[in-house]
Amino acid sequence: MTTTLLSESEITAALDSLPEWSRSGDALTRTVEAATFPAGVELVRRVADIAESANHHPDIDIRWRKVTFTLSTHSVGGLTARDVALAREIDRLAR
């Protein structure tokens, strides 16, 4: 998967298809509220497996049952298709 920065129109289109996500500067963010603290930690573990296999790692903040994921491709300084793909995987796991 390419690590070319997305254009503003590509970012807008991606966010249109990712309604749980928002943009914060050069990153995508989403907070998931899990049913329990262990369920939130389990979600993080499952995301970690996917992120490790893709070699693309999100910033993750766990606050009791709320887990916030922040995605950005630091090596190119912004949003790429890799971030959008990982956001879609996080959405799938969070269902």
TrEMBL record:
It catalyses: (4aS,6R)-4a-hydroxy-L-erythro-5,6,7,8-tetrahydrobiopterin = (6R)-L-erythro-6,7-dihydrobiopterin + H2O. The keyword Lyase applies. Keywords: Lyase. GO terms for molecular function: 4-alpha-hydroxytetrahydrobiopterin dehydratase activity. It is an enzyme of class 4 (lyase). Its EC number is 4.2.1.96. The keyword Lyase applies. Coiled coil: none annotated. GO terms for biological process: tetrahydrobiopterin biosynthetic process. Belongs to the pterin-4-alpha-carbinolamine dehydratase family. This is Putative pterin-4-alpha-carbinolamine dehydratase. The lineage of its organism: Bacteria, Bacillati, Actinomycetota, Actinomycetes, Mycobacteriales.
